[in-house]
Amino acid sequence: MDIVDSHAHLDMREFDADRDAVVQRTWDGGVKALLCPIELSEPRSRPLVLELCRVHAWITAAAGVHPHRAEAFLPSHLEALRELTLAGKIAAIGEIGIDHHYDFSPAPVQAEVFRTQLLLAQELNLPVIIHSRNAGQEVIAAIEETRFSRGGILHCFTEDRRTAERMIDRGFLVSFSGILTYRSASALRQIAASLPLEKLLVETDSPYLVPQALRNKSKRNEPLFVIETAKVLAEVKKVSLEDVAAVTGNNFRALILEKSAPA
Ligand SMILES: [Zn+2]
Description:
By secondary structure, the chain is an alpha/beta fold.
C-alpha cells in the first residue's frame, strides 16, 4: 500500500500519549505522505508539527489560523507565515476558511481572517487548505474577490456538488474524510461518484471522524484509517483500492509536494 492522508492533526492532545507509535504504524501500514496543519493560534502546535516534519520527511506541514480561531488571529501570524514560507517549512497555508455550522468566531471576523490569509497565500504563491462548512458560496466569493489563483485543497468535503465543481474549476482538489463512509452519507457518495478521481483526495482529519467500519473499535481516528475511506471511494468510483491510492497520491504530490516556480 502506498496511500496519502491529505489532512491529519497529529499535534492534537489526543496523540500526546502515543504520538511516536501512531506515526510509526502509519508509515508501516502504507501511508507514505501526510499533511499536518499547524494551528498558529495554538502555541504548542508549531514546534510540535515542525519537529514531526524534521524527523519524518514524509510528513509535510501547512500553517494558518482555523476559522474556529479567527478571533484569536493576530498580525504576527502573518509574519509567522512569511517566515515559515521563506524557511521552506510549509507547503500550504491552512487550514483557513469559514464555518457557519458552529460560528465559533463571529461571521464577519471569519470572513476577514480568511481573506487576509488568502491574499498572503497568493502573494507567497502557496496553495491553501480550506475548511468550509455551510459556507461554499462565501468561500467561492472570497476566492474571486481576492483573485486567489494558486488552488489548493477543499478539505473534509461536506458541501454540495455545485460547490465541488466550482472549486475544481478554480484549481482545487476535493478531499473526502471518513464522513464518506457513514451510513447517512449517501448524498455525499453520489457527489464523489460524479467527480473525476483526478481531482480527489482522501484524508482522515484525525483525531476526528473515525470511518464507519472502525467506529466500534476506536474512538480516536488516526492516519492509517484513511484506507477505509479510500475503500469506499473505490467502491463508489468502481475502481480498485490501489487505483484510488495511486491517483489520489499523484494528485496530492502534484499540488503540494512539487514546488512550482516562484511567482
Ligand atoms: Zn477543518
